[in-house]
Amino acid sequence: xxxxxPYEIVALRYAxxxxxxxxxxxxxxxxxxxxxxxxxxxxxxVWVCRNRERTVVVDTGFDWPSAASHGRTMLQHPIEGLxxxxxxxxxxxxxxxxxxxxxxxxxxxxxxxxxxxxxDSEMDYATGRCMCHPRLRAAFDVEDVVxxxxxxxxxxxxxxxxxxxxxxxxxVHHVPGHTRGLQCVRVExxxxxxxxxSDAAHFYANMERQNPFPIVVDLAAMMESWRTLVRLAGDPDxxxxxxxxLVRRYYPAHPSSAVEAVLLHEPPTRSxx
Length: 273
Ligand SMILES: [Zn+2]
Ligand SMILES: [Zn+2]
What we know:
alpha/beta, single chain, 13 strands, five-stranded mixed beta sheet, 8 helices, Metallo-beta-lactamase, Chain A, binds zinc ion, eight-stranded mixed beta sheet
């Protein structure tokens, strides 16, 4: 078997939101935990997986109107951030959409030549009866979902049912719970396989304290998915949560001052808690 050239992975922070811990953890603190509902900001990322042969973008972020309507602080439009990293969105052939929530699946028209990799069950979820429930549809933007349906009719969606290798050294795996069709991305790097958890784990704390993020459609599946993440990575230090500001503390900064980004293919400066 030919060895895969390892990828670099850049996590680009494009937005943030100040909020209390109680907004991020379903259950109240246990008897041995800090009882105060302190600040626990949430960061927003898109990810770039790149080697000499290809560049795969993971998730596409939201745009200015979504930032305003959801009250989020946009730091840099994600498409501008990609450009600052030397990524031309028009040249991208493969985009993984981990799930269709507004903060992961906006800006699709910025990728006119891409195939979008999506789980069957996510499209089912985002277009089916569950969306009749306001709480379940709250984190979806119907325009993003409709745009993805249009991509289906253009032949530009590659559906996955479970696990698939979408390029040499890049796999997607179904990790449901937060949504029905959430998928994580397992990427071969020089330090071993790194798993981008996306919203299978918003924060290290969700996994560490076994305390879920409150947006959940299937709690048992979410808890199983935490185990799947670690199994796929082979080491908890190679699981990268989807929204945790600690990611920027643990990983070295990207050398460019034009972006707020960190390098996930480098070892973390301290172990995940
Ligand atoms: Zn989500
Ligand atoms: Zn999210």
